[in-house]
Design brief:
Low-confidence stretches: none
Distance between the termini: 90 Å
CATH architecture of one domain: 2-Layer Sandwich
Mean pLDDT: 91
Strand content: 5-15%
Number of strands: 5
Order of helices and strands: HEHEEHEEH
Largest sheet: 3 strands, antiparallel
Radius of gyration: 26 Å
Helix content: 10-25%
CATH class of one domain: Alpha Beta
Oligomer: single chain
Bound molecules: iron/sulfur cluster
Length: 178
């Protein structure tokens, strides 16, 4: 008898759920006709941003490729005559990327950033390998102010060590010796 009541109760619960949903507002979104605006911090397609002065932010330090858990970032570093480092080539295999955001967290120059653009599906998996020219954009992304070389304590044509914005003069480590 108890089994019979349990069965009736389960059926009643199921039907009541169905009945409740009959009167709820539909939440189906007709994609791609309707595209929801995602929060700015959503993690999807990756870009390489520029400094406010238009220069490339990436200094090819390899931190993003080192931290990437699926090893989908590769590059080759180079140095300009003025001492600025840059990536001779830079490649991301989006066929492997899991959009974890660790590369963005690790980047000291704010160069690599994830964007809310999730429409990056391709039939040909090899076309998911993006080169630097596919990644580099003409804006600063989420960080409109930052310029690594103005804070990094690196001598550049704009000033020596400790002469940029927010930098202190270099410490003479021998002054700490007894
Ligand atoms: S989002 Fe994660 S998986 Fe994708 S490139 Fe960055 S670190 Fe690698
Ligand atoms: S994107 Fe950032 S972390 Fe990656 S190599 Fe360039 S500067 Fe370094």
């Amino acid at each position: 008898m108890a089994d019979l009541f349990d069965g009736i109760k389960a059926i009643g619960t199921g039907f009541s759920t169905t009945f409740r949903h009959l009167f709820r507002r539909p939440i189906t979104e007709e994609y791609p006709e309707y595209k929801r605006v995602l929060p700015e911090r959503s993690r999807a397609r990756i870009i390489l941003t520029r400094n406010p002065d238009g220069g490339e932010r990436c200094v090819a330090c390899y931190l993003c490729s080192a931290v990437c858990p699926v090893s989908c970032i590769s590059m080759q570093s180079a140095e300009r005559p003025d001492g600025h480092r840059y990536a001779r080539w830079f490649r991301i295999n989006f066929g492997r990327c899991i959009y974890c955001g660790l590369c963005e967290e690790a980047c000291p120059t704010s160069a690599i950033q994830l964007t809310p653009d999730f429409e990056n599906c391709r039939q040909d998996i090899l076309s998911l390998v993006f080169e630097k020219e596919d990644l580099l954009v003409d804006h600063c992304g989420k960080d409109p102010e930052y310029n690594f070389y103005r804070h990094a304590g690196v001598a550049t044509p704009d000033g020596g060590k400790g002469e940029h914005i927010g930098e202190d003069a270099p410490v003479n480590i021998k002054s700490n010796l007894p």
